[in-house]
Amino acid sequence: MVATKRDYRTALEYLETFKKKDGLSVSELMDSDVRGGLTYNDFLVLPGFVDFPASSVHLQTKLTKKITLNTPFVSSPMDTVTESEMAIYMALNGGIGIIHHNCTPEEQAAMVKKVKSFENGFINAPVVIPPETTVAEVKAMKEQLGFSGFPVTENGTFPGKLLGLVTSRDVQFLEDDSVAVSDIMTKFADLTTGHKGITLSEGNQILRDIKKGKLLIIDDNNNLVSMLSRTDLMKNENYPLASKSATTKQLLCGAAIGTLPTDRERLSLLVEAGLDVVVIDSSQGNSIFQIEMLEWIKKTYPNLEVIAGNVATREQAANLIQHGCDGLRIGMGTGSICITQEVMACGRPQASAVYNVCKFAEEFGVPCIADGGIQNIGHITKAVALGASCVMMGGMLAGTTESPGDYFYRDGKRLKVYRGMGSIDAMQKTGKKGNASTSRYFSESDKVLVAQGVSGAVVDKGSINKFLPYLYNGLQHSCQDIGVKSLIALKEESAKGNVRFEYRTASAQLEGGVHDLHSYEKRLHN
Ligand code: IMP
């Protein structure tokens, strides 16, 4: 006999009779003292209801108590990841870059200054030449650099007193290559210049009016300070998500420092350069050195936002929250270049670290950054679902056009170096003990350096101008599948138990990956 089935129109009513939603709440997933720590790959988020387009999902989130970003993307303070170029494009795309400190304080401050003085469209470090440069030299520079408009300044310095401009038209048909550019350049008196402070659209309009390829921008003392180029203007992209200061409209910039007494002087230079947020960079943040540094910074620079860390437990976090940090960086031993867990026997699987620390920090309104081990968009979604506000990425952003270092070829692949800050290479960068990298690992006085990271290579990923929009769109689609309209909703609905989870067995992980193909190509975006 066939059992009578329920009327299909009562499916929703019937669903109501279940005491529990399908799957597990985040607390059921994570709060087990006996099961062992979880990683991002150990669980999945269950799908929800979709009644909105992915493009409407908001990814706004907090970096620190006072700083809100339009995306959760933060680049790691590593010398193969974040210098000024990376920090500029991270900020333009709605994230923030944290400039590494494995360099002199002056070099680091100059990088911060470059980010803070960046104006989209303006060339802030133009190649300039002295007046005695010969035409032959200009032609050679054109060959090498691919462009030929060179401002001529006194002594060839930048910024420096502007004397004139030489362009390809000036040198093209000259037969005597030994002539100095001072004899053939358009002289300062005959140049139309723009004044420091003009906007991009004003500069653009002048370029249109004068029908020239270059507009040189000068200050009150006729010093060249930047330049506009018509070809660059045409290529200019719009960055609606850019992370900017509400008052100065400058891009936001972060930088890392250590916990040594000399780091106080370093910080003063960074603050002078316009720093918005400082990261106290230590692999184990729960130390007296960090607490003293944190207290000193809050007292000396009350308006500077301070991110402390790294931590992986509630106890570590409590100490730093108690001493006034504005944000926390979570992760110990989970970075892609990291051997800390293996060598030190110390650390924590990242999903457990993120969940436990974020849950505690949330009580005090301290935003958390999940740092290390982010390998794909799904990991970002999971970090936020576990309570993180932002994610810090090293390996994901290494090998991009904007990361420091030159490309090289090996085995037919275009590569860039990516190394841990605790690798021997990074710790020996300055050739002497006591550099920033050794202090991150409390190793400045060691006779034998004990590596906590490796040095390797990653493949060319192209520009982050393409990669970050890929992460952004992917994250929007991920939220859509889960049925949440923002990152904030993802965090909140997860904490309330409405976003549901499930453990992923080893075979579930195999099932969730590509399988049973003879071969395939994994292209992540167009
Ligand atoms: P990734 O995004 O997985 O490549 O991890 C980057 C993170 O690893 C950084 O933000 C640091 O927290 C951490 N890290 C950087 N260098 C080292 C190292 O040498 N050993 C251990 N962890 C490191």
UniProtKB/TrEMBL annotation:
List the pathway annotation.
Purine metabolism; XMP biosynthesis via de novo pathway; XMP from IMP: step 1/1
UniProt keyword annotation of Metal-binding present: yes
What molecular function terms (GO) are annotated for this protein? Answer: IMP dehydrogenase activity; metal ion binding; nucleotide binding
Tell me which residues bind K(+): 333, 335, 338, 507
Q: How is its activity regulated?
A: Mycophenolic acid (MPA) is a non-competitive inhibitor that prevents formation of the closed enzyme conformation by binding to the same site as the amobile flap. In contrast, mizoribine monophosphate (MZP) is a competitive inhibitor that induces the closed conformation. MPA is a potent inhibitor of mammalian IMPDHs but a poor inhibitor of the bacterial enzymes. MZP is a more potent inhibitor of bacterial IMPDH.
> In terms of domain of life, where is this protein from?
Eukaryota
Q: Name one Pfam family in it.
A: IMPDH
Where in the sequence is the active site?
Answer: 338 (thioimidate intermediate), 440 (proton acceptor)
Where can this protein be found? Answer: Cytoplasm
Say what the protein does. Answer: Catalyzes the conversion of inosine 5'-phosphate (IMP) to xanthosine 5'-phosphate (XMP), the first committed and rate-limiting step in the de novo synthesis of guanine nucleotides, and therefore plays an important role in the regulation of cell growth.
By its UniProt entry, which PANTHER family does this protein fall under?
INOSINE-5'-MONOPHOSPHATE DEHYDROGENASE, INOSINE-5-MONOPHOSPHATE DEHYDROGENASE RELATED
Similarity remark: Belongs to the IMPDH/GMPR family.
Protein known as? Inosine-5'-monophosphate dehydrogenase
Species annotation: Arxiozyma heterogenica
The organism's taxonomy opens as:
Eukaryota, Fungi, Dikarya, Ascomycota, Saccharomycotina
